[in-house]
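tool_log.txt
---
The assistant was asked to compare two proteins side by side. It first ran the structure predictor on the initial sequence, then on the second. Raw inputs and outputs are pasted verbatim so the downstream comparison step can read them without reformatting.
(1)
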Amino acid sequence: MLLEKLEFLENKYEELSMKISDPFVMEDQNEWRKLCKEHSDLEDIISKYREYKAATDGLNQAKEMLETENDKEMRDLLNEEYKSCEEKIDKLESDLNVLLLPKDPNDERNVFIEIRGGTGGDEAALFASDLFRMYIRYAERQNWKYEVMNSNETDIGGFKEVVFMIKGNKVYSKLKYESGVHRVQRVPETESSGRVHTSASTVAVLPEVDEVDIQIDPGDLRIDVYRSSGHGGQSVNTTDSAVRVTHIPSGIVVACQDEKSQLKNKDKAIKILRARLYERAEEERSKSIAQDRKSQVGSGDRSERIRTYNFPQSRVTDHRIGLTLYKLDSFMDGDLDEMINSLIATDQAEKLKKLG
């Protein structure tokens, strides 16, 4: 079954290779780009499949030669080759199974990340600021770009709320597991007795969506404008540039004030609104699917406690996969690869188990 599917995909890949080099097809740029994307999406699978076929050929050759070879030294070499090919085939089969898993349609998208200080007052707001910096540093390590959409700072440098966008290659595929409650255990800077406090911030990761995916009727919106505010609520702008957009049917409210232009703030607010409406629609769709579809790494529910950051012990623990890393300083500086790769691997393993 696996080999039949791979053979079919290889034939399709060859057809696409011919089409995208056809001058007549290239005249229709939209069609050509669509075919190039299909071709590109198949590249990893076909490359692995060709490695798999080469390893299988090597195995069969070694097997045939062993049947007629009498020289001991030569037989030892052939047995080594046979074993090496067997190991390679096992690994490639595993890789191919993962590559053939149904793709999350959002994996290629950019994201909006919303971080809010939760329980813990000022300390939770400071931790929200630390998380913001952590994701920005991670984005920089990935050569991704970021843009702050809206922020609400506290007097001591924390965030009651910060919403920002990260743009780049397959951003959602790596950051989608970050939604949930992030708990911190540490001695607050404001604490004189040196006691460890526990506080939390919530993170929501929303894929950026196009107008085609979510259409918004302008008649469903109420737009309010006001003066933007800084620390402690003081006015920092003399014009009504801040915008609050209310989507009346859903009750979702989005405010943006970071830009000096009212038009830019409105545009940002509607982009965030579209992402939230998409998330709500996806949640409804997921609820209608059987509960056993939920994977071990969580459903992306922002009320689920997913991770604890313990500063006195310099450790970070992800509760969904039971992974603890003792490198909190570098983790908070954006060194998230080990954690994110483990989350992806666990998710893939869960999906493979369900398919099996």
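(2)
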Amino acid sequence: MSKGSAGRPKIELKAYDDLFQTDESRSEEKLSKIRDIPLSEIDEFPDHPFQVKMDEDMEQLVDSVRRNGVMTPATVRRKDDGRYEMVSGHRRKKACELAGLDTLRCEVKELTRDEAVIVMVESNLQRTEILPSEKAFAYKMRLEAMKRQAGRPTKENASPMGTHLRSDAELAEKVGESRNQIQRYIRLTYLVPEILQMVDEKRMAFRPAVELSYLTDEQQYALLEAMEYQDATPSLAQAIKLKKFQQNGKLNAGVIQSIMEEVKPNQREKPAFRDERINRLIPKFVPKGQESDFVVKALEHYTRYLNRNRSQER
């Protein structure tokens, strides 16, 4: 209550419709924001970190959408240009496209960019299978959004004691991961795509990949060449050593190759060639590391032998 110009109390009244609005009418108002929106008017979420996979689950979803339509509305927000932006429901949108539908049933929400990021990440983290790269970029996007929201007390980010949690601590509490683990995932976003794909495909362990994320792009690509040559990925100890050389400004292609050539504990001695037929023909007296030279010399000798035979036949 406040005072008017004459000093009399001024009574603030709610709008008539708000005052007499029932739960039923409120539900109807919410339903009015659910509508069928043409797929052509829905844009993808910028830098969406989650992949829409064409797997068996998608085939089942397409079949369900074709028979029953979309049971749970997707979530979109209205853009300034009048179009819509997908927040939650990328798989449902793709299923509609594959099922030959032109529209998607959506709930239109009024969300800021940061609010949309948080909703998008929360909804997608419910998936049963999430790739390390998906978690990495999702955690990074959400943490950045939460940091931008810091200082604006809301029910969403206020702590019970009236103070704000650190953004990473709050995120850790929400997703059930430790703060350190969240930061490790975010480090993966600094990997070059080829190495990050190796982590997703489980061809490289998670912790060594975190250490490698401190290398520059150029150093990571030099490491890729060394890995291909050695047909191996770095152990955690090797990854830590690479990181230390990088921090000391001493990491170059030669050092990378030298570290990757180190024999790991319990590692079997690698054959010189992938083709076992070649390895069987190399004498045991040939020193380790000189197998290629021996094979090249043997081939040169054999080539000269063939040339002599051809010349004698003429």
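---
observation on (2): DSSP finds 15 helices and seven strands in the chain. The chain has a mean pLDDT of 82.
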